[in-house]
C-alpha cells in the first residue's frame, strides 16, 4: 500500500443513524459494511472517524478506481460529503488502519487484520487477512454467514476432512476450515489477483502446505470429491455450475451456499434438489442497507 503508482485521492462518506433502526451497535456495523464494500471495490484504505452526526469514513483510492469505490460506498448506504481531494503525501497509509477491527466469529474463531491484535480466549484460532483487492475479509454479510457455518461444523472436521472453496478470494473460508480442524483444502477463483493474495495469506497464516490454490473455473478441477464444499457466490454465478459443483461433494458430504438473497432461497433449493441436495439448515442476516441474505447448509445423499 505504500508504493505510489498513480495519483491518490481521499473522499469522505458519511454513515448516518437510521431512525427506524434501534439495535445497539447498528451504526458501527453499518460503517464496517460500507468499509468492506469500498475495499471490495478497490479502496487502498479507509479511516473511520466518529462524528456527532454519524461515522465519517475517509476513503483513500487511486484515481483510476476512485469513482467505483465511491459508488460502492453509496450503494452500501453512505452518502458523499464534499469533494474528493488529491493527496500530496502518503501519511494516510497508517492512519486508515485505526477503523478496522477484528471479527469475532465465536470463542473458536477470530478473523482479523494483521495490524489489529486481539487477546484470544483459550482454544480460539485466528486468521489474519488485511483488506485488499481480493474479496474476503469476513466483513460482508455473505462471508460472515459462511464463517458461522464453518464454525458450527468444526466438531465434525478432522485431518481426513477435505474442503473445496469455490470463488475463494483471499482464501479466508478455506483457511478458517483448516484452522478449525480440516486436513486439506483446495481453493480457486477466476480473478488472478485473488490467487496472489490468497497465497500470501496462506503462507503468513501457516497453511501453505495444506491449501492448494489455482486461478480458473471448476472445469479445471480433477474428479476428486470433498467432504465440505464452500460456495460464496451470487446465484447467477453458482447455478450455471451447479451440476459439476454437486459432483464434487462426497456422498454424505456437506455444502454451504452463500451470496444469496433470502428471496432466492426457494429458487436455489428447487434447482439443487434434483441433483441430490437437501437443505439441512439456513442462516439469515439483514445488512445495514436492508438486503436480507441467506446462507444454506445442504447435504448430499
List the defining traits of the structure above.
32% strand, 2 domains, globular, 301 residues, 28% helix, alpha/beta, Rossmann fold
Q: Tell me the count of domains.
A: 2
Query: Helix/strand/pairing class, anyone?
Result: alpha/beta
* Number of helical elements: 9
Report on the biggest sheet.
Answer: 7 strands, mixed
Distance between the termini: 47 Å
**Average of the residue pLDDT scores:** 88
What characteristic shape results from the CA principal axes? globular
Radius of gyration: 19 Å
Strand order of the largest sheet: 10-9-8-11-12-14-13
Element-by-element helix/strand order: EHEEHEHEEEHEHEHEEHHEHEE
Structure description:
The chain is of the alpha/beta class and 301 residues long. The chain folds into 2 domains: 8-99, 2-Layer Sandwich (Alpha-Beta Plaits); 132-300, Vaccinia Virus protein VP39 (Rossmann fold). The protein contains 9 helices and 14 strands. The strands form 3 sheets. A 7-stranded mixed beta sheet has the order 10-9-8-11-12-14-13, sandwiched between helices. The longest helix has 15 residues, at 26-40. It is globular, with a radius of gyration of 19 Å. The mean pLDDT is 88.
Amino acid at each position: 500500500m505504500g508504493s505510489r503508482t498513480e495519483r491518490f485521492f481521499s473522499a469522505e462518506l458519511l454513515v448516518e443513524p437510521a431512525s427506524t433502526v434501534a439495535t445497539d451497535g447498528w451504526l458501527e456495523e453499518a460503517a464496517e459494511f460500507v468499509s468492506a464494500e469500498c475495499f471490495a471495490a478497490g479502496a487502498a484504505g479507509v479511516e473511520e472517524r466518529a462524528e456527532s452526526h454519524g461515522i465519517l469514513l475517509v476513503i483513500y483510492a487511486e484515481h483510476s478506481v476512485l469513482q467505483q469505490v465511491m459508488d460502492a460506498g453509496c450503494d452500501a448506504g453512505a452518502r458523499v460529503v464534499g469533494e474528493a481531494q488529491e493527496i500530496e503525501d502518503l501519511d494516510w497509509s497508517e492512519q486508515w488502519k485505526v477503523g478496522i477491527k477484528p471479527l469475532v466469529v465465536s470463542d473458536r474463531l477470530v478473523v482479523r487484520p494483521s495490524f489489529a491484535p486481539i487477546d484470544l480466549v483459550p482454544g480460539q484460532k485466528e486468521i489474519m487477512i488485511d483488506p485488499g483487492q481480493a474479496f474476503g475479509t469476513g466483513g460482508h454479510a455473505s462471508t460472515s454467514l459462511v464463517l458461522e457455518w464453518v464454525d458450527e461444523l468444526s466438531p465434525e472436521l478432522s485431518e481426513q476432512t477435505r474442503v473445496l472453496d469455490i470463488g475463494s478470494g483471499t482464501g479466508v473460508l478455506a483457511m478458517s476450515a483448516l484452522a478449525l480442524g480440516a486436513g486439506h483444502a483446495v481453493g480457486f477463483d477466476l480473478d488472478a489477483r485473488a490467487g496472489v493474495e490468497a497465497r500470501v495469506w496462506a503462507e503468513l497464516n501457516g497453511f501453505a502446505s495444506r491449501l492448494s490454490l489455482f486461478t480458473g473455473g471448476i472445469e479445471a478441477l480433477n474428479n476428486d470429491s470433498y467432504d465440505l464444499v464452500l460456495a460464496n457466490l451470487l446465484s447467477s454465478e453458482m447455478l450455471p455450475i451447479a451440476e459439476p459443483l454437486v459432483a464434487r461433494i462426497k456422498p454424505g458430504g456437506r455444502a454451504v451456499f452463500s451470496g444469496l438473497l433470502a428471496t432466492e432461497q426457494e429458487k436455489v433449493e428447487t434447482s439443487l434438489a434434483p441433483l441430490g441436495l437437501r437443505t439441512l439448515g439456513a442462516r439469515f442476516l439483514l445488512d445495514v442497507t436492508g438486503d436480507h441474505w441467506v446462507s444454506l447448509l445442504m447435504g448430499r445423499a
